[in-house]
Amino acid sequence: VVVVASGGQEIRPKTYGYGELRGVVTQRELEEILKGDHAQKTLTSPIVMIQCVGSRDASHPYCSRICCSQAMKNALEIKRHSPETEIAILYRDIRTYGFRERLYREARQAGVLFLEFGPDQPPQVIQAGEKLQVRLIVQPEGEEMALEAGLVVLSAGIEPEPGNENLSRLLKLPLSAEGFFLEAHVKLRPVDFAVDGIFLCGLAHSPRAIDETIAQAQAAGVRAVALLAKKELTATPIIAQVNPRLCSACGLCVEICPYGARRLEPGAVYAQVVDVLCQGCGACVVACPNKASQQKGFEFQQVSAMIDAALQ
Ligand SMILES: Cc1cc2nc3c(=O)[nH]c(=O)nc-3n(C[C@H](O)[C@H](O)[C@H](O)COP(=O)(O)OP(=O)(O)OC[C@H]3O[C@@H](n4cnc5c(N)ncnc54)[C@H](O)[C@@H]3O)c2cc1C
Ligand code: SF4
Ligand code: SF4
Ligand code: SF4
User: Fold this and answer.
1) Whose CA is nearest to atom 2 of ligand 3?
2) Would you call 115 helix, strand, or coil by DSSP?
3) 265 C-alpha to ligand 3 centroid (Å)
4) Cβ(270) to ligand 3 under 6 A?
């Protein structure tokens, strides 16, 4: 039994042109500052937060889900330290979903200023002496604005762990177009993979807050225990088999099998099926150029006979 929780990482803001400037930090770095002794002194000059940095663009088309709530949480923490500090949050949409909406309301009540920008017009940050200046076109009016800032905070999103590709090849697990692991069925088997005995949770699956990760990890744990608690496992009888006389050892079936159930040992003259791993998906039957691969109970003659009977 394997639980895949390989995680994700912060999208590096340097890639987005803001990260090189002095006085520009990510929300995570701001959290470190807020934990320190000098927080009160450091955070008195105007602060501008920029949302959707690295998310919801061509290279990361998804919403990273945590950064709106994180910005509200940090803005409220600064307001608690020093209520006079001016904070502006520049956003495309505010996605403080569920009960996190409360943080958005509290931030508004605490005097945080919210300014919307368009997807094709991200704010520009420039160094203006010791200070920073953030220029933006405020939507929906289209008004040009320049904000002075002592600190610019980037709400950098989440991208998949770079090692996911290797892990997916090793365990033969599917990845989404964005590089996160893909569950067997979004509603019916949300923490399972199509391969038996492998489960997933957390950032390996998609961007999510820690409470959602914990809930999903508990679900994956229970699914794993349910499997381990069984004394015997019943394998599917409809598995593939190889006719050694027809097999040319081309290896196509080994390449295509999504469950790692095909073996072609070095020097072997025909491929073999690992019965306990085979899920009877039939991919090898379709791929085999010699009709050497067949599926028990669905052999070519049987399928042809069924089609003939249906057409008569
Ligand atoms: C920038 C950022 C800000 C966030 N802010 C918040 C927030 O404010 N509030 C909130 O609730 N949530 C926040 N989150 C989300 C929260 O951190 C995650 O939900 C949680 O950490 C996910 O836990 P995980 O175990 O799935 O992944 P991780 O915590 O990423 O752990 C995965 C672990 O697996 C290891 N690993 C990776 N590949 C392999 C491998 N091949 N073999 C062995 N080990 C491997 C990694 O090194 C890592 O230690 C934030 C996430 C990010 C990235
Ligand atoms: S959570 Fe908010 S800041 Fe983060 S990607 Fe989604 S909309 Fe953008
Ligand atoms: S039927 Fe599917 S799982 Fe079984 S060996 Fe063929 S490709 Fe692999
Ligand atoms: S694809 Fe067919 S011929 Fe090629 S190794 Fe597999 S069973 Fe043999």
Assistant:
1) 281
2) strand
3) 17
4) no
Question: Does residue 242 line the site of ligand 4, with CB under 6 A?
Answer: yes
pTM of the prediction? Answer: 0.84
Residues in the chain, total: 312
> How far is residue 227's CA from residue 1's CA, in Å, rounded to a whole number?
8
Relative to the CA of 71, which ligand 2 atom is closest?
A: 3
Residue 231 DSSP label: S
| 105 CA → ligand 1 middle, Å | 28
Q: How many angstroms is it from 51 CA to the middle of ligand 2?
A: 6
pLDDT tens for the chain, 312 residues: list them.
889 988 899 988 766 667 677 889 999 999 999 988 766 666 788 999 999 999 999 989 999 999 999 999 999 999 998 899 999 999 999 999 999 999 999 999 999 999 999 999 999 999 888 889 999 999 999 999 999 999 999 999 999 999 999 999 888 899 999 999 999 999 999 999 988 899 999 999 999 999 999 999 999 999 999 999 999 988 889 999 999 999 999 999 999 998 889 999 999 999 999 998 898 999 999 999 999 999 999 999 999 999 999 999
Radius of gyration of the chain (CA): 27
What does the alpha-carbon distance between residue 186 and residue 139 come to, in Å, rounded to a whole number? 36
Ligand 2 pocket, Cβ-based, cut-off 6 angstroms: 51-52, 55-56, 63-65, 67-68, 93, 95, 155, 157
